[in-house]
Amino acid sequence: MAGKNRGPWTVIKSFLFWLHKWLGLASALVLTVVCLSGTVYVFRNEVVELLNPSAFKVEVPDTEAPLSLEALIAKVSEASGARPRSVTLDPRADRSWTFNVQREGDGRRGSNLYVNPYTGEVLPSDHLRGNDFFFWVFRLHRWLLLDTSVGRPIVGWSTVIMLLLIVTGLVVWLPKKWGKLKQRLVVHWRGGKRRFTFDLHSTLGFYSAILLFVMAFTGLFWSFDWSRQLIYTVLKVEAPQRGGSQAAPQRGAGLDRNQGKLALASDSVQGLEGAVPVSFLTYAELLAKADSVLPYKGVYRLTLPSPDAASFQLSKSHSGFFAYSGSDQLELSRTDGAVRALELFRDKPLNEQLAASIKPLHTGEIFGTFSKILYFIACLIASSLPITGFILWWWKQVKGRKKA
User: Fold this and answer.
1) What are the CB-based long-range contacts (under 8 Å, 24+) for 124-133?
2) Is 114 exposed, middle or buried (0-12, 13-18, 19+ CB in 10 A)?
3) pTM score, whole prediction
4) How do residues 208-220 score in pLDDT, each as one tens digit?
5) Backbone phi, then psi, for 291, in 5-degree steps?
6) 371 and 364 in contact (C-beta within 8 Å)?
């Protein structure tokens, strides 16, 4: 008789609990692997830099300033046998600068060379410690170490299930009476092992739900073509052509575009075809102009122009513990430093900002180190949820058998 008096909300919650339980059991193993590998990958760049100080850290001379960018470009060109396509300038004085070159066999993204800005020395970075491990973690996270045609849809559909688990879990978590909300917001350490495990699952799941939903939703971007198009449709932005870059390149990542030949000096350009006379401003003068337009401490990413190009393009993004990942785009005249184009990230419509931030929203780089710490904690919780959920289900099965 009691079952006949159940209200519609109770029936809905019972169904969602049933759905949450069986979807969780079906995907527990895959989601544990995907979330745990994502946890490990969050601080990949920091770990690789820590393991390879000779490639990323440099000694700062007492009196010397960095060499001119023209001189550094010439040294890199001579050492690598290839013209740099771009350079990333780290604002920290004791860090190397990253030059991207494309040599035969490098592929579309080219190779990154780490250079001491005070001496022009190309630092040893052919076999960075930790890179192989994190590439293995990346493959585990994206494809479960399987062929992409197999692993990609498995991870993709498990991600869809994760979204359903988050939504159903939140609904099930809601107490029948708001007076009991406080009890749902804390972990009861002395309530016995079952209550403790239940709180680890439900309470920690509640606190991490928003971040996990963002991770899962943006993760679908790389899972299916239809999910990628769905994200762009929801954001009401036009999908870029495949092969283009939808996010600003990060330190250690290759750039996709080759902007042509390289400028090696301020008053003459020494290319393979010979000297090309020009009367352009030096890179130092152009960067000084850029600093006046974008007056904040940040990372510069310069696309090196062809010798006779009349303009110079660069991007700048904030650096620091709490730094938004969006970059500002600037184009300057090489003859007088006049601003030809300026696109500030903060002035873009919100939907375009979100579309340009899909990758940092997924990886946790959206607000620099601050958000990466939050993502690390949320991913660690997500890795535990399938385990605590399975334990709760198993205890209930054991209890049911004992009653029988």
Assistant:
1) 124/54, 124/55, 125/52, 125/55, 128/48, 128/51, 128/52, 128/55, 129/48, 129/51, 129/52, 130/44, 130/47, 130/48, 130/51, 130/52, 131/48
2) buried
3) 0.85
4) 999 999 999 999 9
5) -65, -35
6) yes
